[in-house]
Specification:
Elements (H helix, E strand, L loop, with lengths): L2 E9 L3 H18 L6 E12 L3 E11 L6 H4 L9 E8 L2 E7 L7 E9 L13 H6 E6 L8 H6 L23 H4 L4 E10 L6 H25 L1 H4 L4 H19 L16 H8 L4
Parallel strand pairs: 1-7
Antiparallel strand pairs: 1-8, 2-3, 3-4, 4-5, 5-6, 6-8
Helix pairs in contact: 1-6, 1-8
InterPro entries: PI_transfer, PI_transfer_N, START-like_dom_sf
Protein name: Phosphatidylinositol transfer protein N-terminal domain-containing protein
Subcellular location: Nucleus
Length: about 280
C-alpha cells in the first residue's frame, strides 16, 4: 500500500533566507556525521534544466550510515546492501528527491518539496488530484517541539531549546506558543513523502519506519537551520556554492575515498523525467 504523507514545516525567515540557511545546515550536518568509517559521499553535482522544475542543481549522494540502521534490519543484510542512494533535483522553490537502497530494490521513496511564503495555510501546494488528496495525511511540524523517538536519537543532532533561543543578528525568537501565527517574516516548506514498499509481511512496517525517519530528519534539520541562523545569516549564494565545493572535498577526504574520474562534472546522469517514469504511478 502506497503511503502519502505531507509534512508542513513553518520557518521564521524569508524564502531567500531559507534557501541559504537550509544549504548551510545540510552541509554542516553532513560534516558532523561523517568520519573515516561512515558518512555522506557526494558523487555528483551538476546543473540541470527541466520543463517541470526549471533550472537547478542535480546531486547524487551515497549515505554510509550503517550504525544508525536498527538491529532488526541488520540481521538479514550486509553493510553494502544498506547503503542509501539519493538523487536530488533542486530548483528552488521546488525540488524532488528519490531515495533507493539495494536491499529494498522494489521499494520507492520520493520527496517532492514546494516552498511558499506563508504559514502553512496552503491546502494543496503540490496540486494533488482528488484521489491523492483522499490518501494524503497532513502533519504540521513545529520546530520548537522536541521528539524522543528512535530516529531522533539516531540522528543525534545538537539539542537547542528554541523556546528560549534568541538570534543576536536578527533578534528573532524565542519561539513561544502560537509563534507560527504571529512571526514575520515567515515561510513554509511543504514536503510530500510518498513511500511504497510492496514486500509481503514487511511492507507496512517498513513504510511506517521510513516515513518516521524522514519526519525526524526534517525536524532536526529545520530546528538547526534556525538555531544556526547567526552563523549563516548574511551569506551570499556564491559563498554557499564555495562552501559546497569545500565540503565535497572534505567529505571525500574524511571518508578516505578517492574521487571518481568524471563523477563531479561529467558523465551521463538520469534526468528528472527518467525518475518520474519510474515513480510516476505513485505520484
Amino acid at each position: 500500500m502506497v503511503q502519502i504523507k505531507e509534512f508542513r514545516i513553518v520557518m521564521p525567515m524569508s524564502m531567500e533566507e531559507y534557501e541559504i540557511g537550509l544549504s548551510y545546515t545540510i552541509m554542516k550536518m553532513e560534516q558532523q556525521n561523517t568520519n573515516s568509517k561512515e558518512g555522506v559521499e557526494v558523487l555528483q553535482q551538476v546543473p540541470f534544466e527541466d520543463e517541470k522544475l526549471g533550472k537547478g542543481q542535480f546531486t547524487t549522494k551515497l549515505y554510509h550510515l550503517q550504525s544508525k540502521i536498527p538491529s532488526w534490519m541488520k540481521g538479514f543484510a550486509s553493510s553494502s546492501a544498506l547503503t542509501v542512494h539519493e538523487d536530488s533535483w533542486c530548483a528552488f522553490p521546488k525540488s524532488r528527491t528519490v531515495i533507493k537502497c539495494p536491499l529494498f530494490s522494489k521499494c520507492s521513496l520520493t520527496i517532492d518539496t514546494v516552498n511558499r511564503p506563508d504559514n502553512g495555510c496552503s491546502e494543496n501546494a503540490h496540486n494533488l488530484n482528488s484521489e491523492q488528496l483522499a490518501a494524503r495525511e497532513v502533519e504540521i511540524i513545529d520546530i520548537a517541539s522536541i521528539s524522543r523517538d528512535y530516529w531522533s536519537k539516531m540522528i543525534s543532532a545538537p539539542n537547542v531549546d528554541l523556546t528560549a533561543f534568541k538570534s543576536q543578528k536578527t533578534e528573532r525568537g524565542p519561539l513561544l506558543k502560537g509563534w507560527m501565527d504571529s512571526c514575520h517574516p515567515v515561510m513554509t516548506t511543504y514536503k510530500l513523502v510518498i513511500m511504497d514498499a510492496p514486500i509481503w509481511g514487511l511492507g507496512e512496517r517498513l513504510e511506517d519506519f521510513i516515513i518516521a525517519g524522514e519526519r525526524a530528519l526534517f525536524l532536526a534539520c529545520h530546528r538547526l537551520c534556525f538555531a544556526w541562523i547567526d552563523e549563516w545569516y548574511g551569506m551570499t549564494a556564491d559563498q554557499i556554492r564555495e562552501m559546497e565545493r569545500q565540503t565535497d572535498m572534505l567529505l571525500k577526504k574524511t571518508l578516505q575515498k578517492p574521487g571518481k574520474a568524471g563523477s563531479k562534472h561529467e558523465g551521463k546522469r538520469k534526468t528528472l523525467k527518467d525518475e518520474i517514469a519510474v515513480v510516476g504511478s505513485c505520484t
